[in-house]
Every structure is written in C-alpha cells, then in structure tokens.
Amino acid sequence: MTAGFEEFQILLERVRREIHKVVIGQDEAIRQALIVILSGQHALIEGVPGLAKTLLARTLARILGCPFARIQFTPDLMPADITGTSVFNLRTNEFTLLRGPVFTTFLLADEINRAPAKTQSALLQAMQEREVTIDRETYMLSPAFTVFATQNPIESEGTYPLPEAQKDRFMLKISMVWPERADELTLLERMLGDDAPESALARGDAEVILDEASLPAFRNTLRLVAFRPEITGYILDVVRSTRNSDNILSGAGPRAAQSLLLASRANAALEGRDFVTPDDVRTMAPPVLEHRIILRPEAEIEGVTATEALTSLLREIPVPR
Length: 321
Prior knowledge:
Blueprint: H1 3-19, H2 27-39, E1 43-46, H3 53-63, E2 68-72, H4 79-83, E3 84-89, E4 94-99, E5 106-110, H5 117-120, H6 124-129, E6 131-134, E7 137-140, E8 146-151, H7 164-167, E9 172-175, H8 181-191, H9 197-203, H10 215-220, H11 229-241, E10 248-250, H12 254-270, H13 278-289, E11 294-295, H14 297-301, H15 306-316
Parallel strand pairs: 1-8, 1-9, 2-5, 5-8
Antiparallel strand pairs: 3-4, 6-7, 10-11
Helix pairs in contact: 2-12, 11-12, 11-13, 12-13, 13-15
C-alpha cells in the first residue's frame, strides 16, 4: 500500500468520525454517501421523513468545507426558481442575472419527487455537465457540484415519479432505514440536553476536514485502486444482464456501467483496499442499478422487487477468479 493511500485512509477515518458527531447510526447510508462524493457523482436518498436525510447532506457539506444550498421542491416550484433568471435593471439599462440556488457546490434537492417533471428536469444539465443555460447564456458551476436529492417513497401522498433521464443521473439510490433501538435511544438522550444533532451541527461541533480546493486531490487518490480486466468485464456482464432478464422490462444503460465501475472502486477504497474484487461489484450493484431498471408488470404482480430481480441475476453471472 502506497504512502498516498495510507494518508487517504487516515483522512477518510477523520471524516467518518466527524460525521458521527452529528448523524447517529445510518452507517450504510454514510458509507454510500462517501462513495458518491469520492466518485464525483450525485445521490438519490430515499426514506420516510425524520431519518436524517437532510442532516446527512448538510453535515457532509460542513465537514468537506463546501458551500451548501437547499431547494424545497413543491408542486408550484418553477425551473427558474432553481437555475435563476435575468432581470432588467432600469438603472443600468441592461439585464442582470439573479443566480438561483443551483450556483453552489453541495445542493440539497429536498423532496424532489414532490415537484412535476418539468421542474425536476431543470437539474439535468447541471448534474451532467455542471453548467446551466439561462436565457441562451451558459454559466459554469463548481467542478465539485454535487446533488443530494431526497425523495419520499413513491407510495407517499403527493409524489410524482422521477423521469428515467433524471434517475439515470444519480449514481446511487441510498435507502435510509429505521434506526436501531440503541441509536434511537441515543438520539432521545441527546435531545434532553444541548447535544441534539441539529444543535451539534449549528454549534460547529463537526470539524471542517477539507475545503473545496482540496477535494479534487482527495478524490484523485482513488486512481491508486487497481482494476483487473476481468473485474471490468464482470461489471459489464452484470449491467448487460439487466437487459435480457425475464423480470425486467427496461434494463440499465451505459451510464449505469460507468457508475458501477466508479462505485466499486470507491467501495474498495473505503474497505481499505487498493484493488477491486468481485465482492465490491456485488455490494454496489443493487444501489447503483435498482433505481434504473423497470420491472415487467407480471413480475410486479407476482411481488418481485427490483432488489430480488438483481440478486437473482447476480447468482447467474460467472464470478471471475
């Protein structure tokens, strides 16, 4: 293991420690969020209200020293409310750009599926190209621009399904689950004093570990993680298998294969390894692919879930030695 990779592991452990000063439990969600940040991608965070989805995104922005903005998605939200608009200034006799909240580094799109598709689509260019076009003028965003979009389960009242093009731009779907009893008890005990999670974040208990300028170097350490050609081929076989499954109507595309490759590499780094194994691929396949596939109606009638369909596919694909 190289010296650079050892330093990366030390820094990563510090980041994890600071996150846990604010966010109680949710270890798997934190791990997946770090994978997204290390890979320079975006995440869709799903869970019922009250599971610290928003708190996790705010805490990550704080610890990584990056500007943060939040958009509360509502049915009446318009695309210009996200990107900004040009306003005519009578004093200067020219148009002035009023920048929207998308001009930040860490953007929290809160309850994104409460807004209709035309509003959700305002983020497509920003997420893919890290730029926005307003009145035929194109403006660059931060190279580290990252979207954390929270969504309520689709069966919740007043939600719209995300368009396929929108979902495909999210590297992972992070599912936040009910906390363990011990974690929930810790939360209650902290609420009795001055150590509630929100208060801890407001006080600045979580130390700033990085800044926006040093984030690229932090991410570039992943290039030290080795990939065997057999593993790359295995990733491709996993993604392509979703296009021929009896349970899946619409499989994952090339962007999913890229996401699975990057996620597998980041997962290996978080596990302290400078090489990728088939287990990394199998671990990351469900969160990378689950939100990208559409099940056949007959499979849904039989009660097959996306996770079960993917698990079945993974069993059938030969694992490289």
